[in-house]
Amino acid sequence: MDPVTRISGLMVPLWRADIDTDQIMPKQHLKKVERTGFGEVVFDDWRDDPDFVLNDERYAQGNVLVTGPNFGSGSSREHAPWGLQQYGFDAIIAPSFADIFKTNCAKNGLLTVELAQDEVEALVSLATDDPSAQVRIDLPEQSVESAAGVFHFDIDQHTKHMLVHGLDPIALTLQHREAITAYEAHRPARMPVTNA
Amino acid sequence: MSTPRTLFEKVWDRHLVTAEEGGDPALLYIDLHLVHEVTSPQAFDGLRLAERPLRRPELTLATMDHNVPTTDPSLPVEDQLSAKQMDTLRANCEEFGVRLLPRGSANQGIVHMIGPELGVTQPGMTVVCGDSHTSTHGAFGALAFGIGTSEVEHVLATQTLWQARPRTMAIEVDGQLPVGVTAKDLILNVINEIGVEGGVGHVLEYRGEAVESLSMEGRMTVCNMSIEGGARAGMIAPDETTFAWLKGRPHAPSGAHWDAALEDWRQLHTDPGATFDHVVHLDASTFEPTVTWGTTPAQSTSVNGRVPHPEETRDPDQATRALDYMGLEGGEAITDLTVDRVFLGSCTNARLSDLRAAAAIVADRPVADGVRAMVVPGSTLVKTQAEAEGLDEVFKAAGFEWREAGCSMCLGMNPDVLAPGERCASTSNRNFEGRQGKGGRSHLVSPEMAAAAAVHGRFVDVREDPRAADARAVR
Q1: Domain encompassing residue A63
Q2: Binary contact (B148, A78; C-beta < 8 A)
């Protein structure tokens, strides 16, 4: 995974609460066995609406999605973050994210930034009024800078470390192989196995 | 004396490979990993690319559920993409030595049905699956949660996951559910109370008289929808109901192991004096048959209620959009809403008792003119058992379609979908836009309410039907 440190670019405002992963990546696109090919079908059902923001040419170059609370709720489908990332988003800013979605984004190097609701609303207003407004996210500094101001965000230090250094979580875990083996040695013999 | 702990804390503590330290999350051991065809192919690919083995194939179990057609399993799968995904799962399971319950197998079914049915889901375990409704298994006092494909790969490779310790929330439900009101209504009321974001970052523990009185199947319905309240997991302390349900299952412990397990499982409850980060109190005796009117599972009301006007809701903008999608204006009586389709299925409400209760409501009455109704048992075992009891004949005589097991129209990945504009009474878990078919309009209800809607062609208060008592009796 490529390291994630500083992201600059343009915003795409999509102010709506509880956008679930069925909207981000509708089920008809979950049948691939590859990780690619999801960018063109992100928000596929909503793209029928000519007024949908991703159909607005002024936002075609946007790489930071600014959206409402509880973004990514519902299904655990990682196809949703794959689609957002392959479409061209490097980061998503929202007041809050659903748990599984947030984890899935982190595993793919798609940065999720949680700001206070009034700060997100300020960014939405800025991007709505001026599609060319720049935004700059600094992960090491945990800040979001734009004409709307400089906003600080919190992120758990483990996720930050993994992103900033572009680490492979499985490789990291395998460094704990001895601890896992030691744990397994103490599991009760009665614990079920699936192949018996 | 040791510090009082919650059920969640006890299960969490016993799975720590490494505890949380500094800013690092805990490394949690995973006892059971369930796998299906949609969220696993890229994970197996990842293992192959990195030349990593599957650490514990014997703690992994796979089935085909999301994509499977619910028609004759001896016929080939027509959708070539779905067929490829199933073939890929079969090949991956062979290559990595994972037991697979494929389409056509006697034990195939929705992944959250087969774990409990086989007895591989047991109290005190950690259970994960690349599916958000993994929370279902919490009904046994397991810590069970959904993960994405990257984490599926992580578990395949390491049998562990990095997890920040979630907060805890007690959902205390006192009183008893009235006749005609079910576990589904209970959880819809919980979600209405806490909201779809209320449980984010939390593990819920459902407690209280109403929860203790539920059967295992009802408890699974409740825990299943924890994710719809935003929670990663929901748990219920195991008790005699749990033990009786598990005893004799193919993978349940037996002999001396059963005795040891029982002694251990009896410790799995929240100690007196243990505290939760949040506590929510509800009274089950006030619950009524509940119907969702919008596009989130929190947007619900009593069957005797009305669809709200947007300004009466917490988020008028969201409600306006939801009503527009649902083809509603606000102010309609729920009992004036007619349905085109009825779906009795899903990992929420397609267990044997759900089908028995629905059949008791239907018995000897035809499906209303113009309504297309279908029953999709949650597992092949449920289908077989239901047929042994003659439930299939009850449904078929009424005009229901009787299908093979799978996720089916809960998410519409197979050919079972709503047409645009069709209104559906559904026993499933999500009424999101497009969930059951692009433009489809889903109203989440209990199996009893769905069966009544099929017969009447509109939503009716099932409590007014004398058969509601029969339905309760067979649950």
Answers
A1: 6-167
A2: yes
Q: How many domains does chain A have?
A: 1
Euclidean distance between CA atoms B96 and B85, whole angstroms: 16
> What residues of B are in contact with residue A183 (Cβ under 8 Å)?
17, 29
Enter the pTM of the model.
0.98
CATH number at residue A87: 3.20.19.10
CA distances from B360 to B27, B166, B180, B474 (A): 48, 41, 12, 8
Are B347 and B410 in contact, with CB atoms under 8 Å apart? yes
Give the CA radius of gyration of chain B: 21
Would you state the structure tokens that stand for residue B443, as one six-digit string? 């109203």
Examine residue A175 and state whether it is found in any structural domain, yes or no.
no
B1 touches chain A (CB under 8 A): no
In a domain, A53, yes or no: yes
Helix, coil or strand: residue A23: helix
Q: Is residue A182 part of a domain?
A: no
Probe site for chain A from B24, B47, B196 (most A CB atoms < 10 A): B196
Tens digit of each residue's pLDDT, chain A (196 residues): 889 999 999 999 999 999 999 999 999 999 999 999 999 999 999 999 999 999 999 999 999 999 999 999 999 999 999 999 999 999 999 999 999 999 999 999 999 999 999 999 999 999 999 999 999 999 999 999 999 999 999 999 999 999 999 999 999 999 999 999 999 999 999 999 998 7
pLDDT tens by residue, B227-264: 999 999 999 999 999 999 999 999 999 999 999 999 99
- Say how many C-beta atoms besides its own lie within 10 A of residue A64's C-beta: 27
Task: Report ipTM (2 d.p.).
Answer: 0.97
A100 within some domain = yes
Question: Are residues B172 and B207 in contact, defined by beta-carbon separation less than 8 angstroms?
Answer: yes
